[in-house]
Every structure is written in C-alpha cells, then in structure tokens.
Recover the amino acids of this structure.
C-alpha cells in the first residue's frame, strides 16, 4: 500500500431557495452521486438571485476534494 | 429596444441577530425599497459583534446588482 | 484614562454538525472562556468535512478581536 | 479655488455581443448620461454568457471614476 | 422536477493569434464540443507569447460553467 | 424601532498636497456634505502624483460607510 | 492542423513524507497516468500534517495543465 | 547557540485621534509592554471612525513580529 | 551550455486609442526595442481615460518576461 | 465528550541555512515545545536573506493549527 | 509625434525615521535622481523596524511609474 | 552619511531540474553577477514544466531586493 495519497479538487455551484447550508448540501450530494471518496469542501463564493425584493436562490461556489482511487 | 443592458453594483451591509441569511435578506429588502430591478447579490465579507461571549449580530457585506432603467 | 485603545486579533476555527452560525458560535464561546472583552469576529474561510455524501461538519475559520485590558 | 479634488468611483457592468471594448464603451456611455466629469475606468472582471457553444455576450465589470462637482 | 440546479466549473486556456475575444471563443467552442449546457465563462488571466517583438499568441485562462444534467 | 441597521459603502478618492491623513480628511469631509450618518472609512489604496522629483499630491482611495436613514 | 491549441487545468493535491518536491512529483505522476499531454504545473498552496511535533506529510495543491487532444 | 531563529507574529490594532503613525506607535508600544524582542511590524489595514464629518480615530491593523526567546 | 535559464520580468504600461490588443502590442513593441529575448507577457490591469463620455485611451499594465543573455 | 472541536492558528516564521523543508521543521518543532496538539501547518510566504550572492537563510512564514484542550 | 505613450513601473523601498510620507518622499527623490519623467507612485506595503519598543524606521514599498522617453 | 536607505526590487525567474531551492539559488546567483548589494528575496510563484509524466524543470518567480548605492 502506498504511503501517500493523491487528491483532486473540482469546482461546483450548488443552489437552494432556503439557506446557504442547503446550497452546500445540494452541491455535495450531487457530486457524491458521481464521484467516490469525497472528503472535504471549501466555500469559494456566496451569491444569489433576487426576486421581488427578496432572495430567490442562494448560490454557493465550492471546491470539493476527493481521494483518487488506488493512489 | 437595446440588445445590451447596463447594470450597476452597490455595496450594502445588512445585519441580523439571527442568521447570515437573515442579514442578507435585510440588506436586499432595504435596497429594493430604494432601487428597482435588483437582480443579484454577491457576499463580500461576513463578520459580526460579540456580546457576553456570544454572537450579538451577524453583519454581511454584499454587492447588490441592478439593471439601469432603459439601458 | 487613555484616549485610545489597543486590540488584538486571534485566529480560531470553530466546527459544528449543524450550521455555519453554530460553528461561529462554538468558536466565539470557546474564545470567550479564555479571553475577556471579545468584541467582534471576521469570517476568513468556510469549509467542512463530507461523510457518506453529506456535510459531516462545517468548519469556519474566524479572526476574533478583543480589547487589551488597561489599554 | 480648492487645491485638491475629490473623486467618486461607481461599479458598472457593461455588456456587448461584439467585443470587450464594446462592452466597456456601453458602460462608459450609459454612465456619462447620468454623471458629469467621468474621467477614468478600471476593469474589475471580464465574463459572459455562452449560447449554442459560442460567446453570446461579453460582460465587463468596471469601476468608473468621476470628479465631484465643486470639490 | 428539481427546484434547484447544480453547476460545475472547469478551467480552460484558449489561444489565438488574432485577439483576446478570439482566444475566448476558441476555448468556449472546444469546451462545448465535449460538454453540454455550457452557460457562462469568467476570465481568470490574460497573457501571451511574444515572437519577434510582437504578440505571437494571446492566451486567455477561463473558468467555464455548465449545468450538470438532471440536477 | 428596528433591531437591525443597514449600511451602505461608497468609494471616494481624496487628495492632498500635504499628507495621507489630510487626503483622508478631505474625502471624509466632502462625503459628509452630501451624506448623513457617515460612520467609518477603510483605506483601499494609497498613491499619488510626482512633480519635479517630489510628491505633488497624495491620493487615497477610501470606502466610506454610512447608516441608511430609518433602516 | 490548427494554428491554436486549447488547454485544460485540473487541481490536484500531492502528498509526501519527504519533501515538497516529492509531493509535487507524486501528484504529477498520478495525473499523468490518467491524462495525456500534461505540460506544466503551478503550485497553489503548500501545507501539511504535524505528527509528534514534526512534519508528518507535506501536502501541495497544484494546478496541472494539459493540451486537449486534437485541439 | 542555534544557527537559526524562530519568530512569531501577532495581529494588533492600534488607534489614535492624531495620525496613522501615532496609531502604529500606540500598538507597537502596547505590544512591547507584554512581549520581548519585538523586531518589526507590517501594516495590514488602515481604517477609522468618522465623527461629525471628520476623522475621529485612525485604526491601523498590524502584524507585529518578535523572536522567540532561546530559539 | 547551461541546463537552466534565468528570466527577468519588467512592468510596462501600454496605451492605445483603439483597442486593448493594440495597447498590449504598443507596450510589447516598445519593450522589444530596448530588450532582447522578450518571450511572454501577463496582463495585470486594464484601465483607461474617458473623454467626452467615451473611452479616450485604453491603458494595459503588463508584466513582460525575457531571458537573461548567457544565463 | 463534545461533538465538536475548536482549533487555534498561530503565525510562526522558521528559518534554515539548508532548505525550505528544514525551515518548516524548525518552526513546527519550536512551536510544539510550547503548544500541545499541533495538527497542521499552512505555508504563507517563502523568503530569505542573500549573503555574498547566495541564499544565506530560507525564511518560511507558517500558520500552525492546534486543537484547544478540552474543546 | 506618437499618439500613445508607454510607461514603466519599478518597485522601490523608501525608509524614514519620521513618517510614512517621508519614506515615500525619500524613495521618490532617489528614484528621480536616476530616472526622468517620474509621474506617479502606488503604495504596495507599509512596514518597519521596531527598536526599544518604538518604531525605529518606517519602510514603504512603492511602485513608481515613469514615461519612457520618445515613446 | 544618510540615516535612511533606499532599496529596489526586481522580479526574476530561476529554474532547475533538481529542486525549488536550486531554482532560487540560480536566480539569486545570476542576479548577483549584475547587481551589487543584493540583500533578500521573496518567492512569488512556484511552477514548472512536466516532461514524460515527471517534473522536468522547477521554475520559481522571485522578487530580489538590493540597496541602491550611496542611498
């Protein structure tokens, strides 16, 4: 077994009508459907749409890190 | 009708005793009272006051973007 | 009495299974156990661990500012 | 007459189907309709929409500086 | 149908002998051959090669954003 | 009375032949002629003109924050 | 043959018990197993774990650039 | 005697009604009451309060560096 | 012959009434009159003057890189 | 036992005549003499002194993170 | 006569026992002894040495811009 | 003798097949052939070429500082 690992980071944007945490979770969940070994996330930007003078959607840009299999 | 739009961004600080989302919404709502066509926001900074060893207020610095009328 | 104050900022990482606000509060509360006169915080980074395709912990890196006694 | 001036900077987003320069000019022209003494601009961000695998619009975020009258 | 979307951003470098806009378009077009639902781009860096005292190639580093299918 | 406030930040450039503090004060004073409730400033950039091998003017770019009335 | 190329950049984290160079090489080697035409890297962050008061692992976050085939 | 030294940096905010230099000196002096071997400072931010349309206090955020004893 | 090269980067500002590319080319051409082996450029800032409500000049701040002779 | 931890980060500068890794290790070792539970480091800056046309010392500025006891 | 100019920027560090403005002036004056057509400066960093618990020297890192002759 | 010094910083890129330290040393040595009184360096970027799935060259971008003679 290797004594070191290699990780990859991808950049994902999650959105939610409800909260910043919800937008993060939507991005992490979608990402985990396609990628194994997702281990951490880092918030890059928080933004959103305004509709009728209120927040319509929160949009959170994340880097998501996962271990490369067999590395 | 023009085939391009011009937008303006203003910098606003919202605050709330309750949550980051609430502070964002307070800023967006105040802004929309004075400006039409508010379309999006971008979080610049998140900070706050501490009172008696607990968060007293969340303060969120936002850029808020709106379309200039007739542009 | 002095007509000016001196403040110090320390860098703290709070975590929570529940929310970003909770992670901030955990850091502020821990900090206030050890330091008097804590007055404000500034979020530096928001990140977290992923477990089983969901957010396991939010981790929030803060600067926390307090007034130096007798300054 | 004062021996010093005061300037203000506002943040504007211009767009164009044609070029980055055109998007800058659209923003500067719109701005000059509403504000006198516009003197300079600084590009903050260049971005755009994609439509059918091609650039649909260039969007350029500018700071635009003007001298405050009678300052 | 979901009430929220998830997007991904990839980092691409386009080049052109002619112009910055051309370099952006080359990157966007190449990207769109391989990825569906490309919706926006953000310029990260503009640079290039010099040949015989003149610009040989413009190189533009872009983030390109697309919606993840079925998200 | 509201339990939260909303603030706005504007970007101003002050100048002075004498000192950086003087340039800040010129900007703050001009700003306060036009806006009520100015509460704080943040220096963004310090620069200036050179004339005959000496500093001719200091120019200081500030963000100036004020509370929005009735917020 | 095209007179321009398109490149892609991916973000990788290499680690090593020995040195920063070793961590870079581990990331580059792993990346080259999966991707052809890897041409350059850019270090984004250098960090690591501490074990028993000594560096346990160096972790280096890299962007790795490669030419897209047939571009 | 060791052929290398280890230094620590702390983040301090000084204030003054008079000048930026005075705010720096107040921070450095307070810091030196509590810490030996203070060797250098680095300005991080310059900001302040406005009172009655004039600068009330300058606030300067510094990093202050000192050598760790016996290192 | 050496198995490594050393490069130097200088910071230049080009201007043009016509386009950003033209401003870059003017800077690169001027630089190449005085320096041999100019190999690449990196755009740092794009800005300009406004005259009569239109862009008067584009100004582009570049870093220009060249190989040091005999290195 | 708590289900969350609080960490603190301190900023340290290590130096070495030999290598960057050695400067990191000197800082981490000194830090671990005084602080328990040191878990990670993040390189902030790499710099150094030049003596007689050669590197005299490498100086590496680190943030070092440790868990607060009983948190 | 050319309808455009080319400028160069150099990075200089001025110091003074007295004030930040003095350190800037020392750098600008030294620079102007060697270079013609110096037109502007931009402060990059402000730092200094501490001696006996007081500021010993202010050090200001500047970019200084000048027009290239005959450009 | 003057009670203050003026320094200049130049930007240099060193390269090496072997290590980051070697690339720094190559740049510092080349620089010192042409400039007297070189006193310090600051690493700006670390990057490199990949050849056959391995690091071919490390490239380190440095600022190198030296005292201006007779300042």
């Amino acid at each position: 077994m290797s004594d070191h690992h290699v990780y990859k980071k991808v950049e994902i944007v999650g959105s939610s009508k409800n909260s910043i945490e919800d937008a993060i979770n939507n991005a992490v969940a979608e990402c985990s459907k396609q990628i194994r070994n997702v281990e951490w996330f880092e918030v890059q930007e928080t933004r959103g749409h305004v509709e009728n003078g209120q927040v319509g959607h929160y949009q959170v840009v994340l880097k998501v890190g996962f271990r490369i299999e067999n590395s």
Summary: The interface with chain G takes residues 10-17, 23, 26-27, 30-31, 57, 61 of chain E (CB under 8 Å).
